[in-house]
Amino acid sequence: IRMYFIKHNLFTVPAISIPSQPFYKNYRIQDLPVSYLNLLDEQNGGYLAFNLVPTTEPTRDGLDSVGIHYLFGLHEDFGTSILFQEHYHKAFSLPEYLIFFSVNDDQLWAFDYSNITNGEPSIRYIDMDTDQWLTIADNFATFLDLLQVAPPDINEEKVLSRLEANHSFLLGSDND
C-alpha cells in the first residue's frame, strides 16, 4: 500500500470535519472526488511523501515537472483545509469552477469542475506568477499515480516558502 503522507509528530492533523452546508458556492463535500476523500482516511491532509508531478511543459520547478508539498484536509483550520475556498478565490480572482486542494504562495492545485470525465473533475496546476495553467491529470486517482519522490530542491539562490521549508525538512528527516 502506497502511503502518501509523511508521518511525523511536528504538525498536528485535525480531525475530519464535514459541514452539512455547501463549503463554497454550491459545492458540497459529496462533490469532491472519491479518491480524494478516501485519501483523507489515511490522514486528514498534510505534507506529501511524494513531492513531484511530471508535466508536459517546463514549470518554475523543472523542465518536465512541478513540485507539490501539501494536500488540504477537511477540517476547520484555516490555511490547511479545503473548506476555505472563498479566501483563495478572492485572493486570486479565479473561476468558481476551481476547487483548490493545495496552495503554495502563488502556485495552486485545483479540481477543475469545468472539465468532468466519468463524474470526476480534472486536476489543474496554476502558477499565478507566470500565468501558467496546466491540466495535470483527468482525475485525482490518476494524479495520485503520477506522484513521484524527488530530493528537495534547496540551493542558496532559491527562497523557500514556509511550506516548502517545512516540507524539505520533513523529506530530509528520518521519519521511521
Q: How would you sum up this structure, described in words?
A:
- The protein is an alpha+beta fold and 176 residues long.
- The chain has four helices and eight strands, in the order H-E-E-E-E-H-E-E-E-E-H-H.
- The strands form three sheets. Strands 5-6-7-8 form a four-stranded antiparallel beta sheet. The chain has a two-stranded antiparallel ribbon with strand order 1-4.
- The protein is globular, with a radius of gyration of 15 Å.
- The relative contact order is 0.19.
- The model has no long low-confidence stretch (mean pLDDT 88).
- Terminal CA distance: 16 Å
Which blocks of ≥5 consecutive residues have pLDDT under 50?
none
Strand order of the largest sheet: 5-6-7-8
Assembly form of the protein: single chain
Number of strand segments:
8
The major beta sheet can be summarized as: 4 strands, antiparallel
Strand content: 15-25%
| Global mean pLDDT | 88
Class computed from helices, strands and strand pairing: alpha+beta
Radius of gyration in whole Å, from Cα? 15 Å
